[in-house]
């Protein structure tokens, strides 16, 4: 069942131009000039119930603007969107109670004096969560996000990772059906990043929530999203499985080999050397030659370890956005 349908969604910001100099500034008070910034241009996609979709693109691609439209913060300039049967920017209460827009740059929006427990109770009131649902949902979230020891702590004294975990609990207390996650792991350390990823995976499988997620960390995307939508300069470039994107973009794989001695083996004969250290090397090999190359290496010298992997998603993204298109 489709939860989100977006058709030709477009957003153009109208930005006042402030000329330099006092005279020109004064004149602009009476005769304003504007420039127009095309942030999102005619993008269309459909997302089904329970899907976790990575919404990716370089800086300024239009990701946050799209999420703001879909969560009802911004009115589109043109095009249509329906989420859970609602037009987001009409901001109907019944819609807002079913979605959450969570931003890594602003993990909690309650006054810093409140404790985490107060923040949860505040959210309960705001979203009319029944006592029964509060007890059940809060207990589950506190457990999944390991929040017990944070409940009596003031929000202002939390670390960034603790704020993100607490912010997620507040945003999910009313069990939203659709989550818009904008850079949920922004600025977090490795432990906090892993905790958030693990939680999101668990939460999405447990509740069947539909998630649209932006992140500059490709590991987030690889861990959570089977499908990705790519945009660049406001336009949609790709919508499909992550694995199909690899197939379309990378006719090669990476081969990591560790060894003690290679008996003078010439790597350049079999592939491009990506990285090399004393006793290990990474090669880029065309996919159709992987078996032959592996056999040749194994029969030429003693190998400690040999690993065949897809190239890093970061490299694939860089390739797409520098070339401006996707090979089909
Ligand atoms: N309030 C605004 N007024 C004018 N222009 C804006 C406004 N917000 C965003 N823009 C512009 O719209 C374009 C898309 O911005 P947006 O923040 O949606 O991109 P993004 O993909 O989320 O980028 P990032 O990855 O850097 O967060 C950019 O050119 C940006 O400068």
UniProtKB/TrEMBL annotation:
It holds the Pfam family ABC_tran. PROSITE patterns: ABC_TRANSPORTER_2 (PS50893). PANTHER family: ABC TRANSPORTER ATP-BINDING PROTEIN (PTHR42711), ABC TRANSPORTER RELATED (PTHR42711:SF4). It comes from the Bacteria. It comes from Paenibacillus oryzae. The keyword Nucleotide-binding applies. The keyword Magnesium does not apply. Gene3D superfamilies: P-loop containing nucleotide triphosphate hydrolases. GO terms for molecular function: ATP binding; ATP hydrolysis activity. Residues 24-258 form the ABC transporter domain. InterPro entries: AAA+_ATPase, ABC_transporter-like_ATP-bd, ABC_transporter_ATP-binding, P-loop_NTPase. Keywords: ATP-binding, Nucleotide-binding, Transport. This is ABC transporter.
